[in-house]
Structures are given as structure tokens and as C-alpha cells.
Amino acid sequence: MKKARRPIILADGDKSRLETLLRSKTEQAQIVQRARIPLLRSEGMALSDIADKVGLNINSVSLCLAKYKEGGVENALFDAPGRGRNPEITDDEKAWILSIACQRPYNLGVPAELWTQARLTSYLNEAAEKNGYTRLSTISKSSVQKILEEAEIKPHKIRYYCEERDPDFESKMHDVLVVYKQIEMQFDDQGNILPFDDVKINTISYDEKPGIQAIANTSPDRMPIVTNGYRQRDYEYKRLGTLSLLAGIDLLTGEAIPLISETHKSSDFISFLSLLDAKYPEGEIIRLILDNHSAHVSKETKEFLATKPGRFIFVFTPKHGSWLNMIESFFSKMTRQMLKDICVLSKDEMEERIYQYFDEINQDPVVFRWKYKMKDFSPGENLENDVKAS
Length: 390
Description:
Layout: H1 14-23, H2 29-42, H3 47-54, H4 58-77, H5 91-101, H6 117-127, H7 141-151, H8 169-185, E1 201-217, E2 237-250, E3 256-261, H9 266-279, E4 285-290, H10 299-306, E5 312-316, H11 327-339, H12 347-363, H13 383-389
């Protein structure tokens, strides 16, 4: 190793400052690189050897030492304001990148529906020069990712929403909430049902759950044992067909009322109405909260209702407003408790087990209470007055 003809002498405190920078794990690599140059020169190392050691050319090493002699450590390590390279990516370039990311790939000649980071980077590289952003023709995927993250843009994802397509959404929701308010007012403080002043109204939250799969194992399950606490099941299975569940919940008593069918057509819905008609005493009103499914408003259903004048009242939830129907919560609970991972030997067994589930639920029925939007449905409206008026 060559010895320097004129090694520099570091000022008081400079050596410890430079050594601290060398040990830093958070300082910029360029600063650490420059900090080594005065230290090595103070040890008598030649300029060419320092250049090899720090990975710079000899001119950069000479410049760093000259700046140290002129203004000390800070002058040697840091560029003066306004010096150095321009930012790699300008605000205009970032804006162009984001504008591309926010467009549908197909509209830009890319067959994919969504941008992946690799596909977006490739498009930017190809389109940069002709759009006047030549430097972006070599932009890396990691740089694109950083720009997207800073702007909180995720062009590789879709988040679904539901457009309000029912022009009568508010009025239909209001009608449903009035019913729930009526139910709430029908209980005393102890939760007992108050007597009706006039004709008793039985309110049923109703819906269908079609397409319940009856699935059979191809090999028997292996039950848990001491050395293996998991129940084991063969991946292979066979489909036995589907069943449709038509069900309602009496909102006063909590009783769940099922009807299982192969389909959920108008004839099946009429069968459920007949089941309710036979269940509740003659002279009482049966009010159903239900969606606007074609079977609920079909010609056959209307003809059946015409034979039972004054017996049934339908309160329809708005389109895309199934969350307003209490039985949806019941179906969700049923799926978690009973239908998840179920395997049967036949569709008849599936039907039997569903009815068995309802029998079990009805041994200790839970009265569902609707809370959402009940206290403050909409400014200027008084639900209790609406209830009394109805």
C-alpha cells in the first residue's frame, strides 16, 4: 500500500465524529462512504488506495479532502443547497404514473382487467418516452410501488360497493322500521308481550335460503384419538343435490318456522303461506317482512292471497336492503352452527337434520330485537307517531 506524501491532520473532535458515522446503521450510505475518506487519509493512505477502498474515483476522493480542508467535516460530507443531482422522479412524473394507475388497463391497450405492479411498470417503461417522460423508461417496480403507496392507490384491488338502485329505498326502509318499532312497543319493561287492543298481528321475518348443498363423504371420517386430536376427513366428496329452505321468525315469540323444498318457486312460497295460515288462529293478521322476489309478487301468489282477504300483509324491504330483514342474522347463525362442514348420507338426512336444528332452536327461542337506526331514523321524522298513525 502506498503511503500518502501529505497525510492530513484531523481537527479536534473530527475523528470521533467520523468514526461515529462509520458505526451508524441509519445514516445514508453516501455520507458513510465520504466519512471514511478523511479517516483513511489521516492514517497516511494514498489517494489511489483510498479510491479503491471506498469505491470512488480518485477525483471524488480529492474533492472530498479539499472540501474538508476548506470547511471541515460538514462541508466534506454534505452537498451545499441546490447542488447534486435533480430528484429522480419529479412531481409531474409522479402525477403521470398515478394517472396511468387510475385508468382501466384495457382502455390503454392492455388486455388485463387490473394492474399488477409488474404489468404497470412494464407499461410505464414502454410508454414513458413517447409521453415525454424519458427517464421513466427505466423506472423500477419498487419505485412504482413506493409512489403508489404514498398516494394510497391500489390498482391491483377491487372494493365492491352497492349502488342504490331502488328509488323508493328510503320509504321502504321507513315502512320496515315502523314495523320493528311496533314490535318493540308490544313488550313491557320485563319483556312480556302486552295484550293487543284490537286484532292480533303476528309479524314474520321471512326469506329463502336456496341451494343448500347435501354433500357426502367418499370415505369415513377418522375421529379424534389420544395421539391425534383432530377429526380427519378425506378431501374427496360427492354432491347429492341441493335443498331450499323457506323460513320465518315470529318477531314476538322468537319461534323459527321452517319449510324445506326442492325449489323455491311460487308454489313453494304458497305452501309456506298455507303453513302460516294453519298455524295462527283464524281472525288474526299475519304480516310478513320479505324481499321483492318474483315468487312473492307472482300471479299465483296474488291469486292465493285473494282467497284469504285481510289475512296477510306484506312489508317489502328495499332492493339491496336484505340487511333490514332480521332473518338474515338467523341464517348466518345457522350456517356457522349447523351447516358448516356438514356431511350426510342422503338429501333426506340433510332435510331431517335441518328440521332437527329448528326443533332445537325452538326449545329456547330468542326474540330478535332491531336496534339500528331506531332512535334516529331520519331528521324531522318521528317513528312513534308513524307507528300510531299506521
